[in-house]
């Protein structure tokens, strides 16, 4: 049985949901409410000692970190592929993933935002300005890369791992009302991806633990 521990608004868990859907794999979802601190409970830490989501279990193994989980799914279930066959093209797609996973997401995840609030006494407007600043910087890098690689999707006209990482980040940007007018290629790719069933089913509002 495949089991994914996540939170409906976690962009990292969102990436893995898309990958599982894209590969046509059935899985059970276990909700870990980050707002209530369930990721720090002894029961969850017995699964994932890092106290983060997502956590993925299958056939007695457990994996953390969305990039590692998606790479595992690609290796174990290679069809349909999420990476091109050419080594340089594969590296280019991975670099796009890491622009999101390493350059944008860590600066704006819940732990960082809560740290700004609690330890730096930032009000909500200041937190929002922080969030929008790093979204703008990161999305500008992605947009420039898409000028070189995008077709209908991040890398040509086939869905790749890069799309799985970009779409949840754009979702978060829209949630925080970040201006996206300067990123037309990003918005084009997002719209094309969200028209596909694997992306639609992975949307946060479609998850069992989504807030009403």
- Low-confidence blocks of residues: none
The CATH architecture of the largest domain comes to Up-down Bundle
Q: Number of folding domains?
A: 2
Broad shape: globular
Order of helices and strands: EHEHEEHHHHHHH
Description of the molecule:
The structure is a single chain. This protein is α+β, with helices and mostly antiparallel strands. The chain has two domains: 78 residues, Glutaredoxin, CATH 3.40.30.10; 112 residues, Glutathione S-transferase Yfyf (Class Pi), Chain A, domain 2. The protein is 56% helix and 8% strand. The chain contains nine helices and four strands, in the order βαβαββααααααα. It has a four-stranded mixed sheet, covered by helices on one side. Helix 1 links the parallel strand 1 and strand 2. Helix 4 packs antiparallel against helix 6. The longest helix has 26 residues. The protein is globular, with a radius of gyration of 17 Å. The two termini are 28 Å apart. The model has no long low-confidence stretch (mean pLDDT 97).
Features:
about 210 residues, Glutaredoxin, Glutathione S-transferase Yfyf (Class Pi), Chain A, domain 2, 2 domains, four-stranded mixed β-sheet
């Amino acid at each position: 049985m495949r089991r994914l521990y996540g939170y409906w608004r976690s962009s990292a868990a969102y990436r893995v949901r898309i990958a599982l859907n894209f590969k046509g794999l059935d899985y059970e979802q276990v909700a870990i409410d980050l707002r209530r601190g369930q990721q720090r409970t002894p029961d969850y830490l017995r699964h994932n000692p890092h106290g983060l989501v997502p956590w993925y279990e299958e056939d007695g193994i457990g994996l953390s970190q969305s990039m590692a989980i998606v790479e595992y799914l690609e290796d174990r279930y290679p069809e349909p592929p999420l990476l091109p066959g050419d080594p340089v093209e594969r590296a280019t797609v991975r670099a796009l993933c890491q622009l999101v996973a390493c350059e944008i997401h860590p600066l704006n995840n819940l732990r960082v935002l809560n740290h700004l609030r609690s330890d730096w006494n930032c009000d909500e407007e200041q937190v929002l300005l922080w969030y929008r600043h790093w979204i703008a910087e990161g999305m500008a890098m992605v947009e420039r890369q898409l000028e070189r690689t995008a077709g209908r999707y991040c890398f040509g006209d086939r869905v790749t791992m890069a799309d799985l990482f970009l779409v949840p980040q754009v979702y978060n940007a829209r949630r925080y009302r970040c201006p996206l007018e300067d990123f037309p290629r990003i918005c084009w790719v997002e719209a094309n991806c969200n028209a596909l069933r694997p992306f639609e089913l992975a949307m946060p509002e479609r998850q069992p633990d989504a807030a009403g």
